Amino acid sequence: MGELIGKAVEGELYYADRKEFDRIRSLNAEPAVRTALFADMARLNALYMIARAGSGHIGSSFSSMDVVSWLHLNEMRTNEDGSARDLYFSSKGHDAPGLYAVMIALGKLPAEYVHKLRQADGLPGHPDVRTPNMVTNTGALGMGISKAKGMAFAHRRRGLDVHLYVMTGDGELQEGQIWESLVSAANDKLREITVVVDHNKLQSDFLLSQTSDLGDLPAKFAAFGWHVERVDGHDLGQLAAALERCRKADGPQVIICDTIKGKGVSFMEHTAMESDAAQYTFHSGAPKADQYTKAAQELIDSINRQLDKAGAASLELEKVQNKPAPQPGETRRLLPAYSDALIAAAERHDNLVALDADLLLDTGLIPFRQRFPERTVECGIAEMDMVSQAGGMALKGMIPVCNSFACFLSTRPNEQIYNNATEHTKVIYVGWLAGMVPGGPGHSHQSVRDIAAVGAMPGVTILEPSCPEEVAPLLDWAIEESRGSSYFRMVSVPWQVPFALPAGYKPSVGHGVRVGGHDGEAVIVTYGMVMLAQACAAADLLKQRGIGLEVVNLPWLNRVDGAWLAKTLAGKSALFTLDNHYLDGGQGERVMTAAFEQGLGGLKARRFGLEKVPVSGSNADVLKHAGLDAESLAAGIAATLGH
Amino acid sequence: MGELIGKAVEGELYYADRKEFDRIRSLNAEPAVRTALFADMARLNALYMIARAGSGHIGSSFSSMDVVSWLHLNEMRTNEDGSARDLYFSSKGHDAPGLYAVMIALGKLPAEYVHKLRQADGLPGHPDVRTPNMVTNTGALGMGISKAKGMAFAHRRRGLDVHLYVMTGDGELQEGQIWESLVSAANDKLREITVVVDHNKLQSDFLLSQTSDLGDLPAKFAAFGWHVERVDGHDLGQLAAALERCRKADGPQVIICDTIKGKGVSFMEHTAMESDAAQYTFHSGAPKADQYTKAAQELIDSINRQLDKAGAASLELEKVQNKPAPQPGETRRLLPAYSDALIAAAERHDNLVALDADLLLDTGLIPFRQRFPERTVECGIAEMDMVSQAGGMALKGMIPVCNSFACFLSTRPNEQIYNNATEHTKVIYVGWLAGMVPGGPGHSHQSVRDIAAVGAMPGVTILEPSCPEEVAPLLDWAIEESRGSSYFRMVSVPWQVPFALPAGYKPSVGHGVRVGGHDGEAVIVTYGMVMLAQACAAADLLKQRGIGLEVVNLPWLNRVDGAWLAKTLAGKSALFTLDNHYLDGGQGERVMTAAFEQGLGGLKARRFGLEKVPVSGSNADVLKHAGLDAESLAAGIAATLGH
């Protein structure tokens, strides 16, 4: 799950090109020998891709690499014309860099994509069907087996003999949908489905056993009627034998592969963690420059030892001087402000409880857990369960605060949030990674429809702080003043804050506040760090063209005070809104509706926001593709104003 | 799940009042004897309540009644002041009539509530915490164990010793959240939670084994680390012994109770079904008058035999002459039109597949399944799995049509619908029971936020047919013209249709059509059978006051063509919208936004729609409470116009 924000590695990076992979595949050696070599070379390339992109999941790309390589080199059938027949995909999708490296090595993805991980014109952070040979969109957890069942149904209807290999994580098995999906696969005897569990024992932050222990996993699958195998996921002989036995099963099969997270680089292997280490650090993000160099060298040495043993020449490497794009100037983050505000609130309220779904680090809860271990409830990757637990706590006098990524929190437990809302209790939901940036992870992680999804929950107020200073006032309002529940949209990326709240600012429901821009005829209403920064920059550009655009922060995403709006627009000739969200269901609709209901006719009006699924890429590219960067905004506003 | 629409029974109905229950509880007899008597009397009262209300779930109220009675009479502890200490609730909530009957008999609910099932001033169709002694809101499936865990956490924090008994259905075990919730209960050794499975083997329509077989249920729970017992759920001695063993367990326990759906009335017992019977008919709805009389008599006879055997006097019964409120005049239904349109589409498209989540009857799929058994996929109560399966099918060339109740379909698989949408395939979602009526089932089943929840899915068009004639044209548009996916909101209740589509009507995206009302200065834009009928009736009332209100049907719930709207409003002085949905995120916001963006200022404007959680009650009461009946609408419109 985690989406740690990393930094691209600067300096010399290495990768192997396709002809080296071709050489290895044609070596006169046992399949297991060739495959192990291939896998280590793919590890080297995945490491390159992640180091270059500045983020990606090393740990699971490496733990699953031997299995993914074996399946693609030795197991999956091709049609007579050479096209793929059997299908493989990863349900979790986090291990995409590993899969991409394998697919590039096999010529199933363009060679230049090795340089284009998490770029708008290249490979998205999680798989997408618009990329060649990607089978289904993943990144949202737990859907893979269901998807495979649907495909199996279609294949059977069409008389096609296609075997489906689905990789899942082990933390992913905490998702309820996995267990939903097992039932009919067994009842319908879908023997063309083989699930491989990458059982690397680690979740985003901590050991599975510390997060939400899975217990007797083979017994669970067996009780659900599946054929179960368990092997060392790095022992290709064991794996081949298990796959052979699976072929004889008369129903769906699961192979639980015991693997090592970060396998292949000694200091990235989770088994190398000090027993008192706070957490595993190579789940997501990018290695530091020295870590990269050390890891790459270790892989290269290992590959060359294997080549030498097989009587083959050493690896020929491609070298790239990587010069990452300059980082934006001074940036700020909401996360520390939230950690502090939550702890302060918990000091005042001994019934405040923080719940987490395997994202303690990304949601700023590590300090909270240190301070209040007995009031931290780790639910594992089980958002429905987390939200309903919170509902139960709230009924019994607690103030539960549910934390996750906004894309998951607003959607997976959507009915559970509503169920809580109908009980008229108070639950606080805090969704991180809100909005379209970071653009690296792709649409499964870009939360750009949560205002809509949570909007119509009665009594639930949606808020987004504009800067670190606004976090505590809004959180305190939710805890101490609001009678109902609240949902917070939180930007995770560090971002510029070229504006400031007025001195003595105090939040007031449905009221916005001017924070920047230049006096003039037009007003733009928006919210959050990312869009306020764009709006301010656009206002500066417009000023050069003689247009005054006033920038208003309205942190209330589903509450607009009509009288305040009328006052704000008095004497103005144009109203713009800017959503870090799809236009449909965003704040803009609510603002425009309020303006119309106030009888404020005759103004020029335009909503800016997402109209299509956002791309995966650099933050700048994502904003630009959506027409929401400062330049596009300024041009759009000027056009609307007739300038 | 099912919510068959029944009819209240007219004529003489019977129930037992509290003093008769008190008499039975003080009988000098074994607890098992007293409890069996109590349970049969509660069955008689639940039958009365359902017959009087015209709907409710007989089957599961009866199958669970012995267990519920035993727990309340013999197992659950009270505090020294007589207040409840241990807590019981049903996770499925369908069996509410049974629980209500028990609670009324024990004096834990007001005596007059026996006459007020599914009434706005009485008992909601599914439990709600605003009713005395109801522990949590249920009706949406699978949340109960999670809720109990949250309560257990709060109790432990507060140093309270409270045991939690949670009833689940067996069909309910198909929901993924159940399996999510089992994990931490076992890891945290929550021995204060006892789950009782009402294993009556039947789902809404068919046998569990025909729907989505559960396989080896005890093995499943055991694999998840729970202490497992299995008993005959009508054998109180077995039950008592199992509960005794549970008390010694050091973790959470589950008691799988083999029960008979409809237990207590011979012809309602599922075991009495002919082996070739199409389906079980006493899941939801109400008995017919002769069925009621026969069932009541059978229960009374059985009770009197038991009383006689215990040396006690016969039952004293209260009699009520029930005269149901008059039904509305001629009504029409969308369901048959949908069944026909779907079959016709499937005749044209051999890749069209219908998927169902245990609601074949309520979603009109019985004829489809008869015609195309090989293209009907029954998923059980597993909406996430259904939607992701549909996604897999669509990727492989099928046109999947997912059917369920709108309240579940738009929310439980919300992230799965989005995942499919990001693949840019075509999936049709058809959500029944849309809107606030029927009001009987209560808010868990009233789908009044699905426009918001599904609205911001890129490429997904939301539609609601206004009358049977509009079903096929809209469905055909979705299947044959739309490039993206569609979500249909379908009214389930029979309703008046005092309007007609113009001759030669052809749907056009974002365009509405005038269907009724009277020429004049004001326009109301709305959709669907229920609200169009209200709007037309309001227009008639307004005409008497000299106000002309034109009624426009806009079946596109998240698409508004601005030019069409401007044309429609030309020369008008007021725009009203009417949502069968919360105001927040409804069609009204989209219409008002489009009007403002068209520069149509200066009109009087008001949105009508839900502002609070709707009540559970008669359809008329539900509309009236929300201020959305014709009279309230007319008054509101007149006031806005200054009349």
Structure description:
The structure is a homodimer of 643-residue chains. Chain A has 643 residues and is α/β, with parallel strands linked by helices. Chain A folds into 3 domains: 3-321, Thiamin diphosphate (ThDP)-binding fold, Pyr/PP domains (Rossmann fold, 3-Layer(aba) Sandwich), CATH 3.40.50.970; 335-490, Rossmann fold (3-Layer(aba) Sandwich), CATH 3.40.50.970; 514-641, Rossmann fold (3-Layer(aba) Sandwich). Helix content of chain A is 39%, strand content 15%. The first copy, chain A, is built from 23 helices and 18 strands. In chain A, strand 12 (460-463), helix 18 (468-481) and strand 13 (485-489) form a beta-alpha-beta unit. In chain A, helix 2 (31-53) packs across helix 5 (96-105) and helix 12 packs parallel to helix 18 (468-481). The longest helix of chain A has 23 residues, at 31-53. Chain A is globular and about 80 Å long. At the A-B interface, helix 6, helix 7, helix 9, helix 14 and helix 16 of A face helix 6, helix 7, helix 9, helix 14 and helix 16 of B.
